[in-house]
Design brief:
This protein is of the alpha/beta class. The chain folds into 2 domains: 265 residues, Vaccinia Virus protein VP39 (Rossmann fold, 3-Layer(aba) Sandwich); 74 residues, no CATH class. Helix content is 39%, strand content 21%. The chain is built from 13 helices and 10 strands. It binds S-adenosylmethionine.
Length: 347
């Protein structure tokens, strides 16, 4: 059983950060919006009728605030929380709300899996605002453990911090009297703060770093959105803000919807189905990557692997722009995009 204690007791530091810097209603709606994006993806992928058969893992559930809404959607929810006090709050919440299909355990993921006679297999994994508070090694360990308890079609909903930069920013947060203070530290200072109960260690993740690390562990990002924009009051603007490099600088958090990469590499059966086309509007976006190597070399001179990830991200951002354009223009139907690989065009 985990003896871990989360240093932000009753989320006091986090609540101060929100109340001092953001519009409270916007904060909630902004998160609802990205979670709705995740739910829509899952519903489309598995089919609406199958949702009640899906098993979800809410890892690091805290006081369980997100359990009821996901339990209402899926077949069952297994929630793990390593801090005993917070875990007990989550258990109470589950007992006092009409949630019959959620179970909360006081455990780390590795401990939980080791203790099971039959390894569970989750269809959906939620990690809501946990990665930024522990060492990167712990995060990599979790990604490895997730491989043990998921399948090739599992959908991962990861929300965490964001910084619009190429490098992560680390800080140690705490109180001076009643005042919330945040000290910028280096990676070593961050690791020390993780181990020190007096501080809440916070890493703000740079997207290129995060995506490169995810790729190393076999995860690929299918959707990315920024949210919790400083100075914003309308969550409807978050989509546009994500596409604007200047506005992105104001985002506190990011949503990464991921799947295992080898699903696409093997070109699974699920993707063999004939596309169904209906409606009266056709929209086509044409991309031609002239020369991957030379395009990659124009990106910031980091190592080759990072460049490849950077190039892929640039292309995916273009696709996100297209999606934003379609939805943003007020069209009230879903639009599908099909990418045709290796299209050879004769001159
Ligand atoms: C900011 S809270 C987020 C709680 C909840 N997911 C939410 O969105 O409200 C971070 C949580 O991560 C938990 N945590 C810390 N280390 C963890 C680990 N190694 N594995 C899983 N959760 C962890 C903490 O105990 C804490 O409850």
């Amino acid at each position: 059983m985990s003896s871990f204690s989360y240093s932000d007791h009753n989320d006091k530091l986090t609540n101060l950060l929100i109340s001092q810097n953001y519009d409270g209603k916007y904060w909630g709606r902004s998160e609802d919006r990205v979670l709705a994006e995740g739910k829509a993806f899952i519903s489309e992928k598995f089919g609406h009728d199958a949702l009640k058969t899906l098993h979800m893992l809410d890892l690091g559930c805290g006081m369980g605030r997100l359990i009821p809404e996901f339990a209402a959607m899926f077949g069952d929810v297994t929630a793990l929380e390593p801090d005993e006090e917070r875990c007990n709050e989550a258990k109470k919440l589950v007992e006092t709300t009409p949630v019959a299909n959620a179970r909360v355990f006081h455990s780390l993921l590795s401990e939980y899996l080791d203790g099971q006679t039959e390894t569970p297999c989750f269809d959906v994994v939620l990690c809501s605002h946990i990665f930024q508070h522990f060492t990167h090694e712990t995060m990599f360990g979790i990604w490895k453990d997730l491989k043990r308890c998921t399948h090739k079609n599992t959908v991962f909903l990861f929300t965490t911090t964001y910084i619009s930069d190429d490098v992560n920013q680390y800080s140690a947060e705490g109180f001076e009297g009643e005042e919330r203070v945040s000290l910028v530290v280096d990676l070593e200072g961050f690791d020390k703060a993780v181990a020190d109960d007096r501080y809440l260690a916070v890493c703000r993740f740079a997207r290129p770093w995060m995506e490169a690390r995810m790729a190393e562990y076999g995860l690929t990002v299918r959707k990315f959105s920024c949210y919790h924009f400083f100075g914003e009051t309308n969550a409807e603007n978050d989509g546009y803000n994500t596409l604007d490099p200047e506005k992105r600088k104001l985002a506190r958090d990011a949503f990464y919807l991921c799947e295992w990469a080898d699903q696409t590499e093997t070109g699974t059966e699920d993707r063999q189905e004939e596309p169904m086309v209906s409606g009266k509007i056709t929209f086509m976006q044409y991309y031609y990557l002239n020369n991957e190597k030379s395009d990659a070399s124009r990106l910031p001179p980091q190592d080759a692997a990072e460049n490849a990830v950077g190039l892929k991200r640039k292309v995916l951002e273009d696709f996100a722009t297209v999606e934003g354009f379609l939805y943003g223009a007020g069209l009230h139907f879903p639009a599908k995009r099909y990418v045709i690989d290796n299209l050879h065009i004769e001159k």
